[in-house]
């Protein structure tokens, strides 16, 4: 699953470049003691911190409270907007604010239905 996550992060990185944004993947997101996120993208003073998740369209994806806390803290320190980027198999990217995720006790969850109902497209994200 790790290689699939890296592949989808690189896919999103290239989408930002193609849209005229600057972007970097951060090494060690999820495996370092320092605050980090999967992707940082910026254009014209707008900065996004994105935690990327991918998976099968019929499965719910879970994000731990710790990952969400880290995204919030990193984003505040960096001056970025925190976003969750979801890429379900055979579907386009959807982007959600933390508040739009299902809160499930020790984690947050998102499935394809929620992502389509509440998420925004890559175009909407980059043209806001």
Walk across the major sheet and give the strand order: 1-2-3-5-6
Largest sheet, strands/sense/barrel:
5 strands, mixed
Instruction: Give the uncertain stretches in residue-range form.
Output: none
Average predicted local confidence, pLDDT: 91
**Coarse morphology:** globular
Tell me the helix content.
Answer: 25-40%
Helical segment tally?
Answer: 4
How much of the polypeptide forms β-strand, as a percent range?
Answer: 25-35%
SS-based structural class?
alpha+beta
Give helix and strand order, one letter per element, not per position: HEEEEHEEEEHH
The Cα radius of gyration reads 13 Å
Number of strand segments: 8
Distance between the termini: 32 Å
Task: Describe, in plain words, how this protein is organized in 3D.
By secondary structure, this protein is an alpha+beta fold. It has helices at residues 2-18, 65-78, 112-118, 122-126, and strands spanning 22-25, 39-43, 46-55, 61-64, 81-88, 94-96, 102-103, 107-110. The strands form 2 sheets. Strands 1-2-3-5-6 form a 5-stranded mixed sheet, sandwiched between helices. A hairpin with a 5-residue loop joins strand 5 and strand 6. It is globular, with a radius of gyration of 13 Å. The N and C termini lie far apart (32 Å). The mean pLDDT is 91.
């Amino acid at each position: 699953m790790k290689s699939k996550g890296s592949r989808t992060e690189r896919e999103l990185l290239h989408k930002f470049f193609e849209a005229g944004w600057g972007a970097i993947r951060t090494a060690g997101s999820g495996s370092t003691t320092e605050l980090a996120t999967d992707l940082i993208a910026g254009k014209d003073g707008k900065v996004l911190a994105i935690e990327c998740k991918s998976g099968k369209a019929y499965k719910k994806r879970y994000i731990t409270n710790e990952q969400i806390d880290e995204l919030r803290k990193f984003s505040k320190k960096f001056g970025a907007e925190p976003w969750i980027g979801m890429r379900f198999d055979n579907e386009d990217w959807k982007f959600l604010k933390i508040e739009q995720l299902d809160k499930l006790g020790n984690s947050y969850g998102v499935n394809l239905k929620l992502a389509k109902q509440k998420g925004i497209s890559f175009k909407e994200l980059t043209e806001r």
